[in-house]
Write a structure and sequence with these properties.
With 588 residues, the chain is mainly alpha-helical. It has 23 helices and two strands. A two-stranded antiparallel ribbon has the order 1-2.
């Protein structure tokens, strides 16, 4: 059986499972559409939350970024993991106790303001649409390779699949579909990692294999990788970062952005009571850890396998002939995600760091420039092929990558549609809309969101994980501070909250657009991707943490200069902070 047929069997079988679950669990009411009826078991909700959490950025792109940047890019791992702990401990139980369906619902009621609700809707939509672009980008990468179509066609297929089960099932269908998707994605991620760890280190646990000896050379795996990348002009894989401030801010931005992401927060409204929200958070952390402890090993082993494939006799020896390139390179070339340009005309594949510091060494070897462009988003998906694993493992990881991208895309689209139908239409424009009408608006808005995300996914501003990092920065600067102040401060009022959210959102968007050169006006393009121009070396991906500080400062300053919230709002804040059974607090 050829590889394409195997891929079809794995991908088609998993999709048939998702569609069947979506049809079985289709939503018949707004409560089922928004929060799955509020009766999901904590273990299942933890599994669904993990699938919602571990998006294309985690499954496909995070390991690719760590593979490309080594220790410097471990910030993605630290930020997203720490952020989930922050969410589980500081926000989820209290928001569940408040008892509202959505984040704008909470902000609108807590800050007793329709304006605050509308600003929260705008922040949510901007962050979620940016995030879903990364998911659609990842889905397009996976579809394009494993169904052997171009990237845009892959995106369109992904859009149709998500539309079917997300629009039909709502949160109820998405929840049980995500349980199945978690099982698929975690098996797909760990089995190839185990195989490759055994090949390279004789250790079947990848996280331990990362710190074991490389079988062929007899030296530690990371030391071997450092030697290989150094000889090709790259920075040592384990080298420390130069800009500690940017690293700290980026990690913080990912952490607090994580805690402000609405599509994860909404999952804690699907369980029967507050205690179940806490248990869901704990179970989700266990399920997430299975992948996140494996990702650094996958990244390191993928980088080593890639380089030793091109330089089988070592980096100082002649690289492979292009005509004799491995099958996996040929198949990924058809997607456009690997490109070869024979700059010195020798018919061989030179792959190295084409920087001035390495120019003399490259010239001495007869190299005229780096000839291979490898999109970082392909490394995890290509890893089984690079390591010559069986065809069924390749098919399995195809299904896993798609499960990761589609599960998070569905959750994000639901957050967008509920913000429009429940918070914007029912909450502000037409409070008397019927249950059936609200459900119809939710489905139409989800369709529009899918169409927009697909269009933008065809021209993404970066790798999947980088686009997602921008979404986290936006959520960090706008939504997270409002939630924290809403729960833990009785003094912040509606005027302060609105001013803070707008200040955080606008400052972050301006910084991102200016320093990524997206304003499309004369003079701004020169700022694009030029760290020398960044303020104090702060990357646009890291500015969300600064935006959050701006949000807090503006909100507290404006609130101190205006009237305090009404007594009933202050009492509500006090009651939400008490645990169940302490002081008579009520489980809303």
């Amino acid at each position: 059986m050829d590889q394409f047929t195997i891929n079809l069997l794995f991908v088609g079988g998993s999709f048939a499972l998702y569609f069947g679950i979506a049809f079985w669990a289709r939503a018949g009411s707004t409560k089922e559409f928004y929060v799955a009826g509020g009766g999901v078991h904590p273990v299942l909700n933890g599994m669904a939350t993990a699938a919602d959490w571990m998006s294309a950025a985690s499954f496909i792109s995070m390991a690719g970024l760590i593979a490309a940047g080594g220790y410097a890019n471990s910030t993605y791992l630290m930020g997203w993991t720490g952020g989930y702990v922050l969410l589980a401990m500081l926000l989820a139980p209290y928001l569940r106790k408040f008892g509202k369906f959505t984040v704008p619902d909470f902000i609108g009621d807590r800050f007793y303001s329709s304006t605050a609700r509308l600003v929260a809707v705008a922040c949510l939509i901007i962050a979620s649409v940016t995030y879903v672009i990364g998911q659609m980008t990842g889905a397009g990468v996976a579809f394009s390779r494993f169904l052997e179509v171009d990237n845009n066609t892959g995106l369109l297929i992904a859009a149709v699949v998500v539309f079917f089960y997300a629009v039909l099932g709502g949160m109820k269908g998405i929840t049980y579909t995500q349980v199945a998707q978690y099982v698929v994605l975690i098996i797909a991620y760990t089995i190839p990692a185990v195989f490759i760890s055994l090949q390279l280190t004789d250790t079947f646990i990848p996280a331990i294999g990362l710190f074991s000896n490389h079988t062929e050379s007899g030296i530690p795996l990371l030391q071997k990788l450092d030697e290989v990348v150094r000889e090709l002009g790259f920075r040592d894989y384990t080298a420390d970062v130069d800009n500690k401030l940017n690293m700290v801010l980026f990690t913080l931005s990912l952490m607090i952005g994580t805690a402000g992401l609405p599509h994860v927060i909404i999952r804690f409204f699907t369980v029967p009571k507050v205690a179940d929200a806490r248990w869901s958070a704990g179970w989700a952390l266990v399920f997430i850890a299975l992948l996140y402890l494996t990702a650094p090993a996958v990244a390191s082993m993928a980088r080593l396998n890639l380089l030793t494939t091109i330089y089988p006799s070592g980096p100082t020896a002649a690289p492979i002939e292009y005509a004799e390139r491995p099958d996996w390179v040929q198949t990924w070339e058809t997607t456009g995600l690997i490109k070869f340009d024979d700059k010195n005309g020798d018919g061989r594949v030179q792959f190295y760091n084409d920087v001035p510091a390495f120019k003399d060494e490259a010239t001495a070897r007869g190299w005229a420039g780096n000839e291979l462009t490898v999109n970082g988003d392909i490394l995890v998906l290509a890893n089984p092929e690079i390591a010559n694993l069986p065809g069924w493992v390749v098919g399995l990881i195809a299904a896993g990558g798609l499960a990761a991208a589609l599960s998070t895309a569905a959750g994000l689209l639901l957050a967008i549609s509920s913000a429009i139908s429940h918070d914007l239409i029912k909450g502000s424009i037409n409070p008397n809309i019927s249950d059936k009408g609200e459900l119809r608006v939710a489905r139409v808005s989800m369709f529009v969101a899918i169409a927009l995300a697909t269009y933008l996914g065809m021209n993404p501003p970066g790798f999947a994980a980088q686009v997602v990092a921008l979404a986290f920065g936006i959520a960090a600067a706008s939504i997270f501070p409002a939630l924290m102040m809403g729960i833990f401060s009785k003094r912040v009022n509606s005027t302060g909250a609105v001013a803070g959210m707008l200040a955080g959102l606008i400052s972050t968007l301006v910084y991102i657009f200016l320093f990524l050169g997206w304003f499309f006006i004369p003079g701004t393009a020169s700022f694009a991707n030029t760290p020398d121009n960044w303020w104090f070396g702060i990357s646009p991906l890291s500015f969300g943490a600064i935006g959050a500080v701006i949000n807090f400062v503006v909100a507290f300053t404006v609130s101190s200069m205006t009237a305090p919230p009404p007594k009933e709002i202050q009492d509500l804040v006090e009651s939400v902070r008490y645990p169940q059974g302490a002081g008579g607090a009520v489980d809303h």
